[in-house]
Amino acid sequence: MHSQRFYTLTASCPDRAGIVAKVTGFIAEHGGWIFESNMHTEHEALRYFLRIEIRADSLPYQLDDLRARFAPIAQELNMDWKINDSAVKKRVVLMVSKQEHCLYDLLARWQSKELDIEIPCVISNHDTFRGFVEWHGIPFHHVPVTPDNKAAAYAEVQRIFDEVRGDTMVLARYMQIIPPELCAAYPGRIINIHHSFLPSFVGAKPYHQAYQRGVKLIGATCHYVTAELDQGPIIDQDVIRVDHSDSVEDMVRYGKDIEKAVLARGLRYHLEDRVLVHGNKTVVFR
Amino acid sequence: MHSQRFYTLTASCPDRAGIVAKVTGFIAEHGGWIFESNMHTEHEALRYFLRIEIRADSLPYQLDDLRARFAPIAQELNMDWKINDSAVKKRVVLMVSKQEHCLYDLLARWQSKELDIEIPCVISNHDTFRGFVEWHGIPFHHVPVTPDNKAAAYAEVQRIFDEVRGDTMVLARYMQIIPPELCAAYPGRIINIHHSFLPSFVGAKPYHQAYQRGVKLIGATCHYVTAELDQGPIIDQDVIRVDHSDSVEDMVRYGKDIEKAVLARGLRYHLEDRVLVHGNKTVVFR
Amino acid sequence: MHSQRFYTLTASCPDRAGIVAKVTGFIAEHGGWIFESNMHTEHEALRYFLRIEIRADSLPYQLDDLRARFAPIAQELNMDWKINDSAVKKRVVLMVSKQEHCLYDLLARWQSKELDIEIPCVISNHDTFRGFVEWHGIPFHHVPVTPDNKAAAYAEVQRIFDEVRGDTMVLARYMQIIPPELCAAYPGRIINIHHSFLPSFVGAKPYHQAYQRGVKLIGATCHYVTAELDQGPIIDQDVIRVDHSDSVEDMVRYGKDIEKAVLARGLRYHLEDRVLVHGNKTVVFR
Amino acid sequence: MHSQRFYTLTASCPDRAGIVAKVTGFIAEHGGWIFESNMHTEHEALRYFLRIEIRADSLPYQLDDLRARFAPIAQELNMDWKINDSAVKKRVVLMVSKQEHCLYDLLARWQSKELDIEIPCVISNHDTFRGFVEWHGIPFHHVPVTPDNKAAAYAEVQRIFDEVRGDTMVLARYMQIIPPELCAAYPGRIINIHHSFLPSFVGAKPYHQAYQRGVKLIGATCHYVTAELDQGPIIDQDVIRVDHSDSVEDMVRYGKDIEKAVLARGLRYHLEDRVLVHGNKTVVFR
For the ACT domain, which residue ranges apply (chains A, B, C, D) (predicted)? Predict the structure, then answer.
């Protein structure tokens, strides 16, 4: 990200001639300076996607004004769109269970401002990491989940998330299945890291499945959470080589490194408004 | 491979104390010089695997003698075993259809002696590559396969393979399903390259499946052919990164590079007796 | 590439506000339909790069007309620019020595129309591949190079290249150093595959150098040839893992797979006008 | 690693016939059960390397006895050798400066017992991470380094390291050059993570160098520290893809993920006695 403040316009619309001319013509009209721009046409679906960063100080008006002036163009082009301000930090709520690798990793990135976000709180179904999280000055909420209290527990998660005005919920190896209601409440805003190279090895114990099948690479997948388990739009994936000498425990260990890296990359793409969802797929303007 | 002649012993047996001492003690007894050795214990199954290369000129007797002398030890250890001679070239029959990339690739490797094998013939269900194959001085057999003649066609394939004394059959993007009878006739001797990162995208059109699912890496898998489609023991796999801008055609194109490399690596491991099958998995002594 | 005909505009110019609006406004003016567009700003150098594919049948005039109409805009923006027609196949001359892997690989891609190019001839300092090349119906020129005839030999190479109206010269493991005069005659038009991950292991025998240093990955680099050996702008690179058990010969063998894939990718980017050179670096609009 | 206690024998010696027979014959003599064994011959140097894990409870005597009994064999074979006990945790001293990613990463692995080591202390030339380290119950030593106090500072580092009986010193992005005296004091015991794919980009600011050269992959290298800067034996390396759109800051960020993973892998190999140094190279029995 640039040190200068900028507005990020992301949009998608039916493809036709002249879209980018219309959008960039509007930006240029008042001297708007473009930092970075990406376009993509999904040729099968005839749908157009774009992401444009505009230097904030190059426009003679404010964000609200920009939105108001752009609205008629967006309407004419039948766009899904939004404009975000780089000066407004995203608020990211972390959900964890008893594995520490993604939590340590994300807090290190937050600590060093590599991830320039607010973490208003961490929520966990275990009390394990209270001390570690609170040492960082971040509130910690222990919301136990049992077979009997699921509805109440996730109502509480939702209450906390809303109360802290969360933008994005990150399941940082949170080992519980998110109920459909919660998925529906925050579409495209809950990010999970699954410890396999999806669509292989959906569900529980993917490293055991990988070991049994004898695959020669294992991986991890960062995706948006939808009601269907491990089926949401994929944001990023990666793999690492294993061989016959690696036990399930070795795979788990190697896998953690992939999980951390893939989750951090995927989250960053999301936070920078680089991910546009199209059906069950994503356009990622890297 | 070394330029010097050597014998390769590969074996597996129930694990216990003293196996390697017994085997290498036997080799050392007459001054046998070990070039390379690999061992592996499958701890869950308590099964031991080994591969040892012995310099041929370090032994005061011939291969048959070596086998005869080793047999009692193998029996005592309850071993599955074989000893191959690096001076005897393996005879590899290629099966192709209408895609050229694996064929060109394997012939280039054969031409340069990177693959130091005999190719007694190429068999195809199309006549497309007759000229190219025959230009290389390799006999070409056109065995058409139709829904009606399958049994006869594969009987003919088997007849040719036996007639040329084939050791290994390579499905170099041969776009037909091998019938169970043929699979059963040559267990662990038919090698396929599947154009996906198995177990994802079994069956037809894996790149289309990958495109539909929106994965961020695509791959290929080299495996032994068994009666169950795309379920045989995996020898090698690899992947390459794709993104939203890649069409199915792009994926096919990127995929071909992975297919060639993975097939060539897997085939080489097999030909050098580096692959030991264990149930539906492989030990690959790279 | 799309099956439909299109024009590809590539350009770079000093960065300022309004560039993309001006360019795409011009395209939209007569209904030009954009297939694909990529932009990039080099923020340090304040230089702007763009590549736009325009559907040929969406414009009411021909290529020459398009160029003439665009020229004033390009001048206003102080652009380096060109517009190519996808219907005009690029003419690629291959230079080889005695290694076959890149030659087989490129001819397989040409044969299958994966690379939709003309190969007007192959030039070699050895006669080794005459039969193979001519079997494909491609003229073969044997231009021996000795310490004494270098100037004459490369004059002959240049004469042939010009005579066949070559667009691009590919050094497909051509094991000779191209003299500065030839480099200067075709800037940004001679592509080499170097068998190391540059800038490591410049010059001769890079795999030996890699073996001596004990690196754990080896690679290959596709780059434009400039007068300074192995220092030209890098188009693409890749690596593969090796370990202590790999001899120099193993590295050579593994390396060939990387060389083929990287050369083919880099060449394709070049042929599709996806590579824009900026000083000694490249912008590659993948 | 296995949950059962074992002894690890690592050794190297001049190659000859019968080495493994002699060593494993000795182990088998008293019923020693081998968990895992690896051998390698460096054919050029005619040197033999081996690593064997022996189940502690399969031997009728203790570690000291094992060493004493093995010594004559080792002498006969002219071996460099050692035998370690898996029940004795290695003592690892971390050296850090002001970057947190490797520190957080290693402490997370230690916390979860993925790295089953003792961390007797962390030493830093800055006081930045005192709180974080001490929160984990680990002593923290601030040893400032200035141009004027180098000799005294590293004498203090050495004093602390000896006092806490350190086995291995890890430079976890410790941004100072270790003086030759310290390198000489602990040969093969100081591990560094260099933020480039060596031998490219030795010395300071490797990501800047990579950016200037326009490479398409960046990497990191875990190596033993020797008196010659960034020239020590390489333990592990890895890379990640970048492109023209990545700034130096992006490269730094991507690089950190590689650094963490490569350092953790290399350190683990070292701690498990999987790394045997041979001249300026390593044999890594993965």
Answer: 8-88
**C84-109 burial code (b ≥16 CB/10 A, e <16):** bebeeebbbbbbbbebbbbbbbbbbb
Name every residue whose Cβ is closer than 8 Å to that of residue D64 and which is 6 or more positions away in sequence: none
Contact list in A for residue C76 (CB cut-off 8 A) is none
Give burial (CB, 10 Å; 0-12/13-18/19+) of D241. Answer: middle
Token duo for residue B83: 């000893």
What are the angstrom distances between the C-alpha of A110 and each of A105, C184, C213? 9, 50, 37
pLDDT of residue A3: 73
Yes or no, beta carbons of A243 and B200 under 8 Å apart: no
Q: Are residues C224 and C205 in the same domain?
A: yes
Judgement on whether residues C59 and C100 belong to the same structural domain of the protein: no
CA distance D8 to D52: 6
Q: What are the tens digits of pLDDT across the range A79-113?
A: 999 999 999 999 999 999 999 999 999 999 999 99
Chain D contacts of C265, Cβ < 8 Å?
none
- Active site residue ranges of D: 230
Subunits close to A (at least 3 CB pairs below 8 A): B, C, D
Nearest CB among A100, A108, A135 relative to D135 is that of A135
Give the chains touching D; criterion: ≥3 Cβ pairs < 8 Å: A, B, C
**Does position D127 have pLDDT exceeding 50, yes or no?**
yes
List CB contacts of B91: < 8 A, sequence separation 6 or more. B117, B118, B119, B120, B164, B165, B166, B167, B168
User: Do B62 and B166 have their domain in common?
Assistant: no
CA–CA separation, D176 and D199 (whole Å)? 19
Q: Which chains touch C (3 or more CB pairs under 8 A)?
A: A, B, D
**Out of C230, C236, C246, C273, which one is annotated catalytic?**
C230
Cβ-defined contact of B18 to D37 (cutoff 8 Å)? no
Is the predicted pLDDT of residue C204 greater than 90, yes or no? no
In a domain, B56, yes or no: yes
Confidence category of residue C30, pLDDT binned at 50, 70, 90:
confident
In this structure, the number of other CB atoms found within 10 A of the CB of residue C82 comes to 12
In a domain, C1, yes or no: no
Minimum-distance CB partner of C216 among D216, D234, D244:
D234
Q: Give A26→chain C minimum CA distance, Å.
A: 8
Candidates D24, D40, D43; nearest CB to B20: D24
Task: Select the residue of A112, A132, A264 nearest D100 (Cβ to Cβ).
Answer: A112
Q: Which residues of chain A make contact with B219, given a CB cutoff of 8 A?
A: 217
Residue identified by tokens 């058990």 is: C245
Which residue of chain D comes nearest to B31, CA vs CA?
Answer: D17
Known active-site residue C243? no
Question: Closest residue of C to B129, CA-based?
Answer: C111
Please tell me whether residues B121 and B234 are part of one structural domain.
yes
Alpha-carbon distance of B171 to B179, in angstroms, equals 13
The ipTM estimated for the assembled molecules is 0.94
Tell me, what CATH number does C13's domain have?
Answer: 3.30.70.260
Task: Output the domain CATH number for residue A111.
Answer: 3.40.50.170
Residue C1 clears pLDDT 50, i.e. is over it: no
Q: Of B70, B85, B100, which residue is a domain's last? A: B85
Residue B1 lies in a domain: no
Do C59 and C107 belong together in one domain?
A: no
Q: Both A194 and A271 in a single domain?
A: yes
Average pLDDT over chain D, rounded to an integer: 96
CB–CB contact B244 A198 (8 Å): no
D1 in a domain, yes or no?
no
Which pLDDT value is given to residue A2? 55
Choosing from A230, A236, A246, A273, the catalytic residue is A230
**CB-defined contacts A:D, below 8 A:** 51
Residue that has been written with the tokens 């100072």 in this structure: D176
Q: What domain range includes position C275?
A: 92-284
Task: State the pLDDT confidence band at A30, using cuts at 50, 70 and 90.
Answer: confident
User: Which chain B residue has its CA at the smallest distance from D33's CA?
Assistant: B17
